[in-house]
Write a structure and sequence with these properties.
about 350 residues; 2 domains; 16 helices; mainly alpha
Protein backbone atom coordinates (compact mmCIF):
# COMPACT_ATOMS: atom_id res chain seq x y z
CA UNK A 1 0.00 0.00 0.00
CA UNK A 2 1.38 3.38 -0.96
CA UNK A 3 1.92 6.08 1.62
CA UNK A 4 -0.82 8.26 0.11
CA UNK A 5 -3.31 5.39 0.12
CA UNK A 6 -2.41 4.50 3.72
CA UNK A 7 -2.95 8.11 4.79
CA UNK A 8 -6.29 8.20 3.01
CA UNK A 9 -7.39 4.91 4.59
CA UNK A 10 -6.43 6.02 8.11
CA UNK A 11 -8.24 9.33 7.80
CA UNK A 12 -11.38 7.76 6.41
CA UNK A 13 -11.47 4.97 8.97
CA UNK A 14 -11.29 7.51 11.79
CA UNK A 15 -14.12 9.58 10.29
CA UNK A 16 -16.37 6.69 9.34
CA UNK A 17 -15.78 4.67 12.51
CA UNK A 18 -16.58 7.68 14.67
CA UNK A 19 -19.81 8.31 12.83
CA UNK A 20 -20.72 4.62 13.00
CA UNK A 21 -20.35 4.62 16.77
CA UNK A 22 -22.53 7.70 16.94
CA UNK A 23 -25.25 6.09 14.84
CA UNK A 24 -25.23 2.89 16.92
CA UNK A 25 -25.21 4.54 20.31
CA UNK A 26 -26.19 8.17 20.00
CA UNK A 27 -26.44 9.91 23.36
CA UNK A 28 -29.81 10.98 24.73
CA UNK A 29 -28.91 14.65 24.62
CA UNK A 30 -31.13 15.86 21.82
CA UNK A 31 -33.15 18.17 24.06
CA UNK A 32 -36.87 17.50 23.73
CA UNK A 33 -37.03 17.06 19.96
CA UNK A 34 -36.68 13.34 20.66
CA UNK A 35 -40.29 13.39 21.79
CA UNK A 36 -41.69 14.05 18.33
CA UNK A 37 -39.33 12.27 15.92
CA UNK A 38 -42.20 9.95 14.95
CA UNK A 39 -44.76 12.71 14.38
CA UNK A 40 -46.41 12.35 10.97
CA UNK A 41 -46.68 16.14 10.69
CA UNK A 42 -44.66 18.53 12.87
CA UNK A 43 -46.46 21.52 14.34
CA UNK A 44 -45.17 25.04 13.87
CA UNK A 45 -43.75 24.98 17.39
CA UNK A 46 -41.97 21.67 16.76
CA UNK A 47 -40.51 23.01 13.52
CA UNK A 48 -39.15 25.97 15.46
CA UNK A 49 -37.59 23.61 18.01
CA UNK A 50 -35.80 21.76 15.21
CA UNK A 51 -34.57 25.06 13.80
CA UNK A 52 -33.17 26.11 17.19
CA UNK A 53 -31.65 22.67 17.74
CA UNK A 54 -29.73 22.77 14.45
CA UNK A 55 -28.68 26.38 15.00
CA UNK A 56 -27.23 25.40 18.37
CA UNK A 57 -25.18 22.38 17.28
CA UNK A 58 -24.25 22.97 13.62
CA UNK A 59 -21.48 25.49 14.45
CA UNK A 60 -19.56 22.75 16.27
CA UNK A 61 -19.19 20.88 12.97
CA UNK A 62 -16.67 23.45 11.71
CA UNK A 63 -14.47 23.57 14.82
CA UNK A 64 -11.78 21.24 16.16
CA UNK A 65 -12.14 17.43 16.14
CA UNK A 66 -13.60 17.19 19.65
CA UNK A 67 -16.24 19.80 18.85
CA UNK A 68 -16.99 18.11 15.54
CA UNK A 69 -17.60 14.82 17.31
CA UNK A 70 -19.82 16.47 19.90
CA UNK A 71 -21.87 18.30 17.28
CA UNK A 72 -22.24 15.14 15.20
CA UNK A 73 -23.37 13.17 18.27
CA UNK A 74 -26.05 15.71 19.00
CA UNK A 75 -27.36 16.05 15.45
CA UNK A 76 -27.42 12.33 14.71
CA UNK A 77 -29.02 11.54 18.07
CA UNK A 78 -32.67 12.09 17.08
CA UNK A 79 -32.11 10.61 13.61
CA UNK A 80 -30.96 7.33 15.17
CA UNK A 81 -34.26 6.84 17.01
CA UNK A 82 -36.67 4.15 15.79
CA UNK A 83 -39.61 5.16 13.63
CA UNK A 84 -38.28 8.53 12.52
CA UNK A 85 -41.01 10.03 10.33
CA UNK A 86 -40.64 11.35 6.81
CA UNK A 87 -41.73 14.83 7.91
CA UNK A 88 -39.21 14.92 10.74
CA UNK A 89 -36.40 13.96 8.35
CA UNK A 90 -37.51 16.56 5.85
CA UNK A 91 -37.69 19.25 8.52
CA UNK A 92 -34.21 18.38 9.80
CA UNK A 93 -32.88 18.35 6.25
CA UNK A 94 -34.37 21.74 5.53
CA UNK A 95 -32.48 23.26 8.45
CA UNK A 96 -29.28 21.26 7.98
CA UNK A 97 -28.81 21.53 4.23
CA UNK A 98 -27.46 25.12 4.04
CA UNK A 99 -24.98 24.30 6.83
CA UNK A 100 -23.94 21.00 5.27
CA UNK A 101 -23.29 22.62 1.90
CA UNK A 102 -20.91 25.10 3.51
CA UNK A 103 -19.17 22.35 5.45
CA UNK A 104 -18.68 20.16 2.37
CA UNK A 105 -16.87 23.08 0.74
CA UNK A 106 -14.54 23.41 3.75
CA UNK A 107 -10.91 22.70 2.83
CA UNK A 108 -10.48 20.42 5.85
CA UNK A 109 -11.22 16.90 4.72
CA UNK A 110 -12.53 15.80 8.11
CA UNK A 111 -15.03 18.65 8.24
CA UNK A 112 -16.30 17.94 4.72
CA UNK A 113 -16.46 14.17 5.24
CA UNK A 114 -18.37 14.44 8.51
CA UNK A 115 -20.92 16.70 6.85
CA UNK A 116 -21.50 14.09 4.16
CA UNK A 117 -21.99 11.31 6.68
CA UNK A 118 -24.58 13.45 8.46
CA UNK A 119 -26.25 14.05 5.09
CA UNK A 120 -26.46 10.30 4.61
CA UNK A 121 -28.02 9.68 8.02
CA UNK A 122 -30.57 12.43 7.34
CA UNK A 123 -31.65 10.40 4.30
CA UNK A 124 -33.85 12.70 2.25
CA UNK A 125 -33.90 13.45 -1.45
CA UNK A 126 -32.21 16.81 -0.87
CA UNK A 127 -29.35 15.34 1.15
CA UNK A 128 -28.91 12.51 -1.36
CA UNK A 129 -28.48 15.14 -4.08
CA UNK A 130 -25.75 16.78 -1.98
CA UNK A 131 -23.99 13.42 -1.72
CA UNK A 132 -24.20 12.89 -5.46
CA UNK A 133 -22.61 16.29 -6.08
CA UNK A 134 -19.80 15.47 -3.64
CA UNK A 135 -18.91 12.31 -5.58
CA UNK A 136 -17.27 14.68 -8.08
CA UNK A 137 -15.14 16.45 -5.46
CA UNK A 138 -11.43 16.40 -6.36
CA UNK A 139 -10.47 15.18 -2.86
CA UNK A 140 -10.42 11.36 -2.45
CA UNK A 141 -11.53 11.42 1.23
CA UNK A 142 -14.55 13.53 0.30
CA UNK A 143 -15.51 11.22 -2.58
CA UNK A 144 -15.24 8.22 -0.28
CA UNK A 145 -17.33 9.97 2.37
CA UNK A 146 -19.97 10.72 -0.28
CA UNK A 147 -20.31 7.02 -1.11
CA UNK A 148 -20.34 6.18 2.61
CA UNK A 149 -23.10 8.72 3.06
CA UNK A 150 -25.14 7.06 0.33
CA UNK A 151 -24.67 3.70 2.04
CA UNK A 152 -26.11 5.24 5.21
CA UNK A 153 -28.99 6.80 3.28
CA UNK A 154 -29.94 3.43 1.78
CA UNK A 155 -29.66 1.83 5.22
CA UNK A 156 -31.96 4.45 6.77
CA UNK A 157 -34.43 4.06 3.91
CA UNK A 158 -34.75 0.33 4.66
CA UNK A 159 -35.06 0.74 8.44
CA UNK A 160 -37.56 3.60 8.60
CA UNK A 161 -40.07 5.35 6.36
CA UNK A 162 -38.00 6.49 3.35
CA UNK A 163 -37.81 10.23 2.70
CA UNK A 164 -36.05 9.68 -0.64
CA UNK A 165 -38.21 9.52 -3.73
CA UNK A 166 -37.83 6.61 -6.13
CA UNK A 167 -36.26 8.66 -8.92
CA UNK A 168 -33.50 9.94 -6.61
CA UNK A 169 -32.88 6.42 -5.33
CA UNK A 170 -32.43 5.16 -8.88
CA UNK A 171 -30.23 8.10 -9.81
CA UNK A 172 -28.00 7.44 -6.81
CA UNK A 173 -27.68 3.75 -7.68
CA UNK A 174 -26.74 4.55 -11.27
CA UNK A 175 -24.18 7.14 -10.15
CA UNK A 176 -22.60 4.61 -7.81
CA UNK A 177 -22.33 2.04 -10.60
CA UNK A 178 -20.58 4.55 -12.82
CA UNK A 179 -18.31 5.62 -9.98
CA UNK A 180 -17.31 2.01 -9.32
CA UNK A 181 -16.52 1.33 -12.95
CA UNK A 182 -14.31 4.42 -13.26
CA UNK A 183 -12.25 4.14 -10.06
CA UNK A 184 -8.68 2.90 -10.34
CA UNK A 185 -8.10 3.14 -6.57
CA UNK A 186 -9.64 -0.02 -5.06
CA UNK A 187 -10.26 1.72 -1.73
CA UNK A 188 -12.44 4.35 -3.40
CA UNK A 189 -14.09 1.69 -5.56
CA UNK A 190 -14.87 -0.24 -2.38
CA UNK A 191 -16.80 2.77 -1.09
CA UNK A 192 -19.15 2.39 -4.05
CA UNK A 193 -19.38 -1.38 -3.49
CA UNK A 194 -20.40 -0.80 0.14
CA UNK A 195 -23.08 1.69 -0.88
CA UNK A 196 -24.47 -0.58 -3.60
CA UNK A 197 -24.43 -3.44 -1.10
CA UNK A 198 -26.74 -1.40 1.14
CA UNK A 199 -29.03 -0.78 -1.85
CA UNK A 200 -29.01 -4.50 -2.74
CA UNK A 201 -30.34 -5.25 0.76
CA UNK A 202 -33.33 -2.92 0.46
CA UNK A 203 -35.65 -5.86 -0.09
CA UNK A 204 -38.77 -3.75 0.46
CA UNK A 205 -37.89 -1.73 -2.67
CA UNK A 206 -37.68 -4.36 -5.41
CA UNK A 207 -37.00 -1.96 -8.27
CA UNK A 208 -34.07 -0.43 -6.40
CA UNK A 209 -32.66 -3.86 -5.56
CA UNK A 210 -32.80 -5.04 -9.16
CA UNK A 211 -31.11 -1.88 -10.42
CA UNK A 212 -28.46 -2.04 -7.66
CA UNK A 213 -27.62 -5.64 -8.55
CA UNK A 214 -27.24 -4.67 -12.20
CA UNK A 215 -25.10 -1.58 -11.50
CA UNK A 216 -22.88 -3.41 -9.01
CA UNK A 217 -22.32 -6.27 -11.44
CA UNK A 218 -21.53 -3.96 -14.37
CA UNK A 219 -19.24 -1.71 -12.34
CA UNK A 220 -17.36 -4.65 -10.85
CA UNK A 221 -17.03 -6.17 -14.34
CA UNK A 222 -15.22 -3.05 -15.49
CA UNK A 223 -12.82 -3.32 -12.57
CA UNK A 224 -12.24 -7.04 -13.22
CA UNK A 225 -11.57 -6.43 -16.91
CA UNK A 226 -9.04 -3.75 -15.95
CA UNK A 227 -7.01 -6.20 -13.85
CA UNK A 228 -3.81 -6.61 -15.85
CA UNK A 229 -1.59 -9.65 -15.84
CA UNK A 230 0.99 -9.66 -13.10
CA UNK A 231 0.91 -9.49 -9.34
CA UNK A 232 -2.59 -8.60 -8.14
CA UNK A 233 -3.41 -5.81 -5.71
CA UNK A 234 -4.82 -7.47 -2.54
CA UNK A 235 -7.18 -4.52 -1.98
CA UNK A 236 -8.56 -4.98 -5.49
CA UNK A 237 -9.23 -8.64 -4.73
CA UNK A 238 -10.96 -7.72 -1.45
CA UNK A 239 -13.16 -5.18 -3.24
CA UNK A 240 -14.15 -7.61 -5.99
CA UNK A 241 -14.77 -10.38 -3.46
CA UNK A 242 -17.10 -8.09 -1.53
CA UNK A 243 -19.00 -7.24 -4.72
CA UNK A 244 -19.37 -10.89 -5.73
CA UNK A 245 -20.49 -11.87 -2.22
CA UNK A 246 -23.18 -9.19 -2.23
CA UNK A 247 -24.45 -10.33 -5.62
CA UNK A 248 -24.43 -14.01 -4.66
CA UNK A 249 -26.55 -13.22 -1.60
CA UNK A 250 -28.91 -10.92 -3.52
CA UNK A 251 -29.52 -13.53 -6.21
CA UNK A 252 -30.11 -16.20 -3.57
CA UNK A 253 -32.63 -13.99 -1.74
CA UNK A 254 -34.43 -13.22 -4.98
CA UNK A 255 -35.57 -16.83 -5.23
CA UNK A 256 -38.15 -15.80 -2.62
CA UNK A 257 -38.41 -12.03 -3.15
CA UNK A 258 -38.26 -11.97 -6.95
CA UNK A 259 -36.35 -8.67 -6.70
CA UNK A 260 -33.61 -9.51 -9.21
CA UNK A 261 -34.84 -9.54 -12.84
CA UNK A 262 -33.37 -11.74 -15.55
CA UNK A 263 -31.44 -8.84 -17.09
CA UNK A 264 -29.63 -8.22 -13.78
CA UNK A 265 -28.87 -11.93 -13.49
CA UNK A 266 -27.33 -11.74 -16.94
CA UNK A 267 -25.09 -8.93 -15.66
CA UNK A 268 -24.12 -11.19 -12.74
CA UNK A 269 -23.20 -13.98 -15.15
CA UNK A 270 -21.02 -11.53 -17.09
CA UNK A 271 -19.28 -10.49 -13.87
CA UNK A 272 -18.68 -14.12 -12.89
CA UNK A 273 -17.03 -14.70 -16.26
CA UNK A 274 -14.93 -11.54 -15.97
CA UNK A 275 -13.78 -12.49 -12.48
CA UNK A 276 -12.82 -16.03 -13.48
CA UNK A 277 -10.94 -14.65 -16.50
CA UNK A 278 -9.14 -12.11 -14.28
CA UNK A 279 -8.19 -14.85 -11.83
CA UNK A 280 -6.84 -16.91 -14.72
CA UNK A 281 -4.70 -14.04 -16.02
CA UNK A 282 -3.30 -13.37 -12.56
CA UNK A 283 -2.63 -17.04 -11.82
CA UNK A 284 -0.79 -17.60 -15.11
CA UNK A 285 1.44 -14.55 -14.69
CA UNK A 286 2.10 -15.10 -10.97
CA UNK A 287 1.60 -18.80 -10.08
CA UNK A 288 2.86 -18.18 -6.54
CA UNK A 289 -0.25 -16.10 -5.82
CA UNK A 290 -2.78 -18.53 -7.31
CA UNK A 291 -3.82 -19.93 -3.94
CA UNK A 292 -4.72 -16.46 -2.71
CA UNK A 293 -7.18 -16.14 -5.58
CA UNK A 294 -8.90 -19.47 -4.91
CA UNK A 295 -11.71 -17.98 -2.73
CA UNK A 296 -12.59 -15.45 -5.45
CA UNK A 297 -12.65 -18.22 -8.07
CA UNK A 298 -14.97 -20.33 -5.91
CA UNK A 299 -17.25 -17.39 -5.23
CA UNK A 300 -17.44 -16.50 -8.93
CA UNK A 301 -18.30 -20.07 -9.83
CA UNK A 302 -21.07 -20.14 -7.20
CA UNK A 303 -22.54 -16.91 -8.59
CA UNK A 304 -22.49 -18.39 -12.09
CA UNK A 305 -24.25 -21.56 -10.92
CA UNK A 306 -26.97 -19.52 -9.19
CA UNK A 307 -27.87 -17.46 -12.25
CA UNK A 308 -27.47 -20.28 -14.80
CA UNK A 309 -30.60 -22.01 -13.52
CA UNK A 310 -32.78 -19.16 -14.83
CA UNK A 311 -30.69 -18.08 -17.80
CA UNK A 312 -30.23 -21.59 -19.21
CA UNK A 313 -32.99 -23.51 -17.50
CA UNK A 314 -30.59 -26.10 -16.15
CA UNK A 315 -28.54 -26.71 -13.03
CA UNK A 316 -24.77 -26.67 -13.39
CA UNK A 317 -22.50 -29.08 -11.64
CA UNK A 318 -19.65 -27.40 -9.70
CA UNK A 319 -16.27 -27.62 -11.39
CA UNK A 320 -14.26 -26.82 -8.27
CA UNK A 321 -12.25 -23.95 -9.74
CA UNK A 322 -11.16 -22.71 -6.34
CA UNK A 323 -10.18 -26.16 -5.15
CA UNK A 324 -8.04 -26.68 -8.24
CA UNK A 325 -6.21 -23.40 -7.66
CA UNK A 326 -5.79 -24.18 -3.98
CA UNK A 327 -4.34 -27.59 -4.82
CA UNK A 328 -2.06 -26.28 -7.57
CA UNK A 329 -3.91 -28.17 -10.32
CA UNK A 330 -3.41 -25.59 -13.06
CA UNK A 331 -3.93 -28.22 -15.78
CA UNK A 332 -7.40 -29.03 -14.46
CA UNK A 333 -8.13 -25.34 -13.95
CA UNK A 334 -7.26 -24.49 -17.55
CA UNK A 335 -9.33 -27.42 -18.83
CA UNK A 336 -12.34 -26.06 -16.97
CA UNK A 337 -11.76 -22.62 -18.48
CA UNK A 338 -12.13 -24.19 -21.91
CA UNK A 339 -15.52 -25.54 -20.84
CA UNK A 340 -16.51 -22.02 -19.83
CA UNK A 341 -14.96 -19.84 -22.52
CA UNK A 342 -14.29 -22.20 -25.44
CA UNK A 343 -16.27 -22.16 -28.74
CA UNK A 344 -18.95 -24.50 -27.35
CA UNK A 345 -18.55 -23.38 -23.78
CA UNK A 346 -21.04 -22.27 -21.18
CA UNK A 347 -20.59 -18.53 -21.73
CA UNK A 348 -21.28 -18.90 -25.46
CA UNK A 349 -24.37 -20.92 -24.53
CA UNK A 350 -25.43 -17.93 -22.45
CA UNK A 351 -25.21 -15.82 -25.63
CA UNK A 352 -22.11 -13.84 -24.66
CA UNK A 353 -20.15 -12.90 -27.80
CA UNK A 354 -16.97 -14.67 -28.75
CA UNK A 355 -13.95 -12.92 -27.28
CA UNK A 356 -16.01 -11.23 -24.53
CA UNK A 357 -13.88 -12.86 -21.84
CA UNK A 358 -10.08 -12.82 -21.85
CA UNK A 359 -8.61 -15.50 -19.57
Amino acid sequence: MTRNRRTLRNLLLVIVAGAALTAMGAPARAQNIDTFVSAAQLTGQQQQQVKEFVAKHAPDLAKDPADIERGRDQILGPLSRPNVSVNFRQTMAGELLPELKKLVADQRDQVAANALLIAGETATSTTVNLLLEAMNDPRPPVRFAATSGLARAFGQATRTAPAINADDMRRAVQALGGFLGSQTDPFLADGSVLALTAACRADSMKEVVGLAVSELAKGASQRAQAMASGKTDPEQVVMLTRAATTLRDAVARSVVSGAVPQSAKNDCAALAGDLIAAVSRAAKSDPSGAKDLAPLASLSETLLILVADELLGKKLQPMGLGQKLQGGDMTGFQADLEKLFGPGGLMREMKFPEGRFKP
